[in-house]
Every structure is written in structure tokens, then in C-alpha cells.
Amino acid sequence: MTCQIQSLVRLRRAAMTLAFSLPLLSAGIAHAAQDWPSRPVRIVVPYGPGGAVDVATRKMAQMLSTQTGQSFIVENKPGATGTIGVSQVARAAPDGYTLVANDTTYSLLPHIFKQLPFDPAKDLQPVSAFVFAPMALAVSNDSPYRTLDDLIAQARAAPGMITYGSGGPGTTPHFAAEGLALATNVKFMHVPFKGAAEATQAVLGKVIEFQFASTTGVMGAVQGDKLRLLAVSGDKRLAVLPDVPTFAEAGVKDFGVVNWTGLWAPKDTPPQVMERLQREVAKAMASEEMKTFATKMGAEPRAADAAEFGRILADSGVMWGNVARNIGYDAK
């Protein structure tokens, strides 16, 4: 009987300790969230350096560092269509100090993998999307293909012999190229690389004949007369490249693929941190520096908050699901 009473006393003391501790713990978490960022923030880019996501993210990290007075450090973790880097962040502490950047490829993942090491819809929270860039078909500057018609005609004459590169199977450039092949009734040969920048180098080195890429990732090479764009997506030509036709003008209707860059945080990241992040991204994109950066890259300089970003992700998932089924690539 005495032992039972002692046990009850101990349980009561433990319950009282927990009752006192929980408010203090909650207050501590809230205080830490309000003080964010009080130490460096890591942004994982799940692709190799030099690609569109990497370029846009590094510029955003620079802006966030300036605005907050704290370092935002970009870390490249390429592999497995970006799932290696994304899964690391999905398992990270939800404190706002580990984020992941990605592009439209994120919407493709459920359609190309039967199993993922994370749940794209539940394990990560969308923060904001920014730098909305058209997709472009790029060839080397001395390529024999001067127009999109030239390329398509050769693909019809030699089915499966025209090579193109991407940052890996299931990436946006891969699906964009297959979407073009479907729309024009031709067949290309896909050559995957570890990142978009490697694919660009392969085009320059004549290893492959073309690539689909975000204008953000290739504009430097285009302006340096190393790459030539045969067409861009969207409903109007780029102001910085007025001589490059849209796909619609080149004869391929309804090719409206736009590649955005976005940030995600692990689930359960405090609302105060999420709201601060959104405000800082929006502030960065409203600056003349980021507007100039995006415009020179042929991109739209705007930011989408978490709610709009969620709708973009949902719409992209439907679009890419249709493409995946049409080309027999859907994992489901």
C-alpha cells in the first residue's frame, strides 16, 4: 500500500513538472521563432551548381543575407532527380534554419517515382515561389539547326537520333522535351546529366544537340554568343531577345511551360518563421536589384506567397501528370 502511495506521489510530481514545463517550452519555441534568423540558414539546392535553380537561389540567398543581416548559405546536394537533397530537408528540424529550393520538377516527383523517401504534399511546406522563367530550346551557336522547323524536320527524317540533355530523368527539361516530341509527333534521344549546367556544357561541347532549359540558367551563355535559342515558351517574346520566337509562333501551339524557383521548409516550421520568410522573399523580389536580375534572365520578377504557391503546385501536378501518362512514364 505504501509503495502504491509513493508511486502516485511520484506520478503527481512528474505531471506537475510537465504542466509547468510545457508553457516554458512553448514560450521558448515562440521566442526562438520571433528571433529568427539568429544563426546562418542553409538552403539546399538538390542539383549541381550553375543550373537555373542554383543561379536563382544564390541570388535570392544574397538578398536575404543583406536584408536580415544573417548568412543564407546555398549547399548543392544533387542526385536522383533532386530527391536526395529534398529528403534531407524533409527530415531536418522544423526551425527555419534548413530550407530546400527546387523548380517545377518538384511537381513531377509523384509521377515518376512509385515510392519516395518523403511525402511531397505533407513533409514540406511551400514558402514562396519566385523568378518565373520561360523554358527555352537551346542549341550551340554554330549548330546547323537555325530554326525549330529545322530541328523537327531532322527528327522526322532520323527518328530517335536527335539527342537532347537534361538534369536527369523526370526533370522539367526532360518532360518539356518529351512534351514537344509528343506535340510534333517526333522522337528524340534523351541523355541525362547530373544537372542542367552539365547538359549545357554537353550542348556546347557537341556531345548532344539541344537542351530544354529555363532562360535563367542559359541566358549568360546566350548573351555570350555560345548558345542560340530556337524558341521560348510563354505568350510573348522576351524583351531581352526579341528575335527569338515563341513556340506558338514557331508552329507549336499551347506550349506554356514556365519554370519557377521556389523555397520549402520542413513541416511544422513555426508560422512566425514562415511568415517572415515570405515577407523577406517578397521584399527581395520587389527590389530593383532582383527585378533587374530577373529581367536580364528573361524571367518575370515577382513572388508568390504560400497560398498562391500551393495552387501553382496543384496545377503543375495535374499538367505534368497528363504528360507523364501520354508518354507512358507515369509511375502510378
SSE topology sketch:
Elements: H1 2-34, E1 41-45, H2 52-68, E2 72-76, H3 83-90, E3 98-102, H4 105-112, E4 124-140, H5 148-157, E5 163-166, H6 172-184, E6 189-192, H7 196-204, E7 210-214, H8 215-223, E8 227-232, E9 258-266, H9 271-286, H10 288-296, E10 300-304, H11 306-326
Parallel strand pairs: 1-2, 1-3, 5-6, 5-7
Antiparallel strand pairs: 3-9, 4-7, 4-8, 4-9, 4-10
Short description:
The chain has 332 residues and is α/β, with parallel strands linked by helices.
Q: How helix-rich are the residues, as a percent range?
A: 40-55%
* H-E string: HEHEHEHEHEHEHEHEEHHEH
- What's the N-to-C terminus distance? 61 Å
What is the general shape? Answer: globular
* Global Rg: 23 Å
The number of helical elements comes to: 11
Largest sheet: 10 strands, mixed
How much strand content do the residues show? Answer: 15-25%
Task: Report the average pLDDT across residues.
Answer: 90
Label the structural class.
alpha/beta
What is the number of beta strands?
A: 10
Oligomer: single chain
Low-confidence stretches: 24-29
Q: Could you please describe the fold and organization of this structure?
A:
This protein has 332 residues and is α/β, with parallel strands linked by helices. It is 46% helix and 20% strand. The protein contains 11 helices and 10 strands. Strands 1, 2, 3, 4, 5, 6, 7, 8, 9 and 10 form a 10-stranded mixed beta sheet that branches. Helix 2 links the parallel strand 1 (41-45) and strand 2 (72-76). Helix 2 crosses helix 8 and helix 4 packs across helix 11 (306-326). Mean pLDDT is 90; it is low at 24-29.
